[in-house]
Amino acid sequence: MTDLARKLLKPGRRLFHRQKTLNRSMAGNATLFILMAICGLFMVLPLVMIINNALKPLDELFRYPPKIFVRNPTFENFSDLFVLMSNSWVPLSRYVLNTIIITGGGTLGHVILASLAAYPLAKHNFPGKKFLFSIVVLSLMFSWQVTQIPNYMIISWLGINNTYLAVILPAFAYGLGLYLVKQFMEQIPDSLLESARLDGASEYRIFWSIIMPNIKPAWLTLAVLQFQSMWGNTGATYLRSEELKPLQYALQQIVNSGPARQGAAAVVTFIIAAIPITFFIICQSNIIETMTTSGMKD
């Protein structure tokens, strides 16, 4: 054994030195805190105003200049919205069920399909792999308005127009989700997968037992993004029957019903914003991990 090896294996000897931490002065920390507080205030101000508008009576809603905080809070706007939805031709429960089917089906289906498609792109070599991934990246350059007419023609050709599938199936082809999951999968060590193959695990077992648990932050982030997109979908392009339309469509009709319904419209705005925010808060820790982690390395 060489002298260098003896020194490295000497008890109490540290093989790696801890990185030096960046020290900031108290003034620097205070400045950063103030800047972050100002940015956070501007970000939360619209949410605060949405909550207060839902509790404002009509005279405060039409007051100019508008006030951010409510002076005489009331729940009449919520009761007005409930009465409007109860007297509608289609009951509120039907709109809620349609929203659950469309949002849940589109979100769950895309997370599974994007993960299945990303696995061979990230961990297998086959002819045309780079070309296929280039097409996925290229699709991110186009907005949904560009592909709206081709999508409608394909849906009509498949004969599923005016059905739930007409809204759910296009959600599966969300290129950003596939790109996000594929990039995250590449950080999983290949040696981990090779060990599973040597133990006799099939590709499906590797995918569900190793890949999916290790990329949980990525697919939860994807679920939040897709949930937000599906929650805001009115289905007006493909759905003609009133019994199939989601809650978002019914709420927008109330918003456009005139000044007399502005109290109910304020509650509608609150509901539209509250559901995605609640879902984001539940998955917040995993989303932050996706944005900041460097992943697993060999």
DSSP strand (E) fraction? under 5%
Q: How is the main sheet built?
A: none
Task: Please write the string of helix (H) and strand (E) elements.
Answer: HHHHHHHHHHHHHHH
DSSP helix fraction: 55-70%
Full CATH superfamily name of the largest domain: MetI-like
Please give the CATH architecture of the largest domain: Orthogonal Bundle
Q: From the helix content, strand content and strand pairing, which structural class follows?
A: mainly alpha
Mean pLDDT: 79
Counting H and I runs of at least 4 residues, what is the number of helices? 15
Oligomer category: single chain
Let me know the number of strands: 0
Shape descriptor: globular
What fold name stands as the CATH topology of the largest domain?
MetI-like fold
Number of domains: 2
CATH class membership of the largest domain: Mainly Alpha
Radius of gyration: 26 Å
Distance between the termini: 28 Å
Detail the poorly predicted runs.
4-20, 294-298
Describe it.
The two termini are 28 Å apart. The chain contains 15 helices and no strands. The protein is globular. The protein has 2 domains: 43-74, no CATH class; 75-292, Orthogonal Bundle (MetI-like fold). Helix 2 (26-54) crosses helix 14. It is mainly α and 298 residues long. 67% of the residues lie in helices and 0% in strands.
Describe, in short, the structure shown.
With 298 residues, the chain is an all-alpha fold. The protein is built from 15 helices and no strands.
Give the SSE layout.
Blueprint: H1 3-8, H2 26-54, H3 58-61, H4 76-86, H5 92-123, H6 129-139, H7 148-158, H8 165-172, H9 175-185, H10 190-198, H11 203-214, H12 216-231, H13 247-255, H14 262-282, H15 284-292
Helix pairs in contact: 2-14, 4-14, 5-8, 5-9, 5-12, 6-9, 9-12, 12-14, 12-15, 13-14
